[in-house]
Known about the structure:
- By secondary structure, the chain is of the alpha/beta class.
- The protein is 33% helix and 24% strand.
- It has twelve helices and 21 strands.
- The chain has helices at residues 3-16, 22-43, 63-68, 70-73, 80-93, 122-136, 156-159, 177-187, 196-208, 227-237, 345-353, 379-396; strands at 99-100, 103-107, 117-120, 145-151, 166-172, 191-194, 217-220, 243-248, 251-256, 262-264, 269-275, 280-287, 298-299, 302-306, 319-326, 331-334, 340-343, 361-365, 371-375, 403-406, 419-421.
- Strand 9 (251-256) and strand 10 form a beta hairpin.
- Helix 1 (3-16) packs across helix 6, helix 9 crosses helix 10 (227-237) and helix 11 (345-353) crosses helix 12.
- The longest helix is centred in the first third of the chain and has 22 residues, at 22-43.
- The protein is globular.
- The model has no long low-confidence stretch (mean pLDDT 90).
Amino acid sequence: MNNKLVIAKHYLYYKKLRMKNREYLERYQQRKIDKQLDFVTKNSPFYRDYAGKELAAFPEMNKKIMMEHFNELNTVGIDRESALALAIDSEKSRSFSKTLNHITVGLSSGTSDTRGIFLVAEEEKNQWAGYILSKVLYGSILQKYKVAFFMRANSNLYEAVKSNNIRFEFFDIYKPITENISALQELCPDILVGQPSVLLEICDYIENKGLKIRPKKVISIAEVLEERDCRRISSVFQIEPVHQVYQCTEGCLATTCEYGTIHLNEDIVYIEKEYIDDRRFIPVITDFTRRSQPIIRYRLNDILVEKQGTCPCGSCFTALERIEGREDDVFLFDAQDGQVVKVFPDFIRRVVLFSGEVENYRVLQTESGALEIYINKSEKIQKSIRQEFDRLAKDLKFQLPDISFFAYSYDRSKKLKRVESKRKK
């Protein structure tokens, strides 16, 4: 069976898959987990000693451990150094079509300290393509679509969605924005996919520089989509909701339903929730579909916030209020009693939100604990931000550090992080 037929088969499977309720979903997940663990313990030297054990007995995984044990973890006999060499060569040449023993190799974008390599076999690639198409296409797979995809790096994984009726165009964000805008106008996409920072730049070209595109669906990826940015994107494109795909090298973890709610993709991943408070949690993921590089009890450092109440779409999949940011971007402030006060990224965002009309900003906590705020606004707004931080410090009982203001800027080759902390515990 050729790849396109295999992709279509997976598309139809996931499109028709229905979970009646939470109990049905949990039984489905358990069957998938049992099958996955049986395969992994037979084919991954790292997991061989865990044969016959329950998922909870398996060790918790992270990027550092995965890279240290890369050779014995993967089930396809690929050497870490060979994979890394291919991934780096692809990044440098900006050509992403090469494979290693028919395995797609990619490099994570490096928002955490440890650089990661991911492997995807041909069947996994086809399954992923079918799954993602079932989530992002607004109509039948037989319709014609033009998809504009803005990203740091292309991949055979993304290219797999191409077909006779799906025109997929990769836009390299390393290229000059003017070159990409010209090509975007020529394509005039039906579906536009990109980081919020890129989508906002496109908004500026629509409002001020004559770009005329009217996609039927806009999808945010790779960066945290803040509420204010979401409202602007929605307003400029005259589209609602702005969809999100929460995709990382460890799997496709969540997508947005037609009501604008982000739901965990619990039909392909099982997620243990490491709660920080009553609604915030760190996801520990087990992917049912990844076999070449098993993802078993992999702890991300993202902070997800559960949504209260049920979604009108009726899905029994866990609903999220938002993807708040990374655990290591929790701000740490000194308290009067010598303790450390943790402040979640959402509180920092609200400081800026309550200070007035601000579109572009970054708040950075330095290693020393001081705050650097990058913003192109008046002294009045800056004063208001200081007052809001002072109010937050009194409410949460921490000592306000030094605050400095700078002109707004960010490195377009990296993910935009509006709220970032470099202070370590």
